[in-house]
Design goal:
Layout (H helix, E strand, L loop, with lengths): L65 E3 L3 E4 L5 E10 L8 E10 L5 E10 L9 E9 L10 E11 L1
Antiparallel strand pairs: 1-3, 2-3, 3-6, 4-5, 4-7
Length: 163
C-alpha cells in the first residue's frame, strides 16, 4: 500500500522476505553456506552483493629529513677544544635511526687568518622521531699541536647524514 510504513524512497524489503521478518537461513546440506555481506559466496553463488569500494591507499611515510641549526659555540677549558651545541629537527615522516654529524673546525690565527679547516665526525643522537627536535652538545677537540699558542678554534659549519 503506498504511503504505508517502509514504503518511502530508498526503502526495500529484500527478495523473498516478508516485511518485518528476517529471511530463513539455507537448510543444511543445500549446497550453499551463509556468508558475511560483501564477501563472495563459495562456488560463485550468484549473489547480488557487491564488494565495498577499495579504500584509498595511504601514501607511504616520507623519509627522515633532518634540519640542523647553526652551531652554538662555547669555549672549552683548552684552546684546541670548544663545546658545540646543535639542534636537530626531523621534518620527515619516519625516525632518523642512525647517522653521523660532521664538524668543520677552523684554526684561526692571532690576526684572524684562517689557517686550516679540520673535519671530525660523531654519531647522531639517534633515534630522532618524526616531527621531533633534539639538541645535543658535543665537545669538539683538535690535536693540541695543530693549534699553537695564540691561535684558537671555531667550528663554523656542521652537516649530517642519516638513515
Amino acid at each position: 500500500m503506498p504511503g504505508g510504513p517502509g514504503s518511502g524512497p530508498g526503502a526495500t524489503t529484500g527478495t523473498g522476505a516478508k516485511p518485518g521478518r528476517p529471511s530463513k537461513p539455507p537448510a543444511p546440506g543445500s549446497g550453499s553456506t551463509p556468508s558475511t555481506p560483501g564477501t563472495p559466496k563459495p562456488g560463485g553463488g550468484g549473489g547480488t552483493t557487491s564488494p565495498p569500494p577499495p579504500a584509498e591507499p595511504t601514501p607511504p611515510p616520507t623519509p627522515a629529513a633532518l634540519k640542523l641549526s647553526a652551531p652554538q659555540r662555547v669555549p672549552a677549558d683548552k684552546r684546541w677544544c670548544e663545546k658545540v651545541t646543535v639542534e636537530f629537527r626531523n621534518t620527515g615522516g619516519t625516525p632518523a635511526r642512525s647517522g653521523t654529524i660532521t664538524f668543520a673546525t677552523h684554526i684561526i690565527g692571532a690576526l684572524g687568518v684562517d689557517w686550516a679547516t679540520i673535519r671530525s665526525s660523531r654519531p647522531l643522537p639517534a633515534p630522532i622521531a618524526a616531527g621531533a627536535t633534539r639538541s645535543q652538545t658535543y665537545t669538539v677537540c683538535l690535536e693540541s699541536w695543530r693549534v699553537p699558542l695564540g691561535m684558537r678554534v671555531e667550528t663554523q659549519d656542521v652537516s649530517a647524514v642519516w638513515e
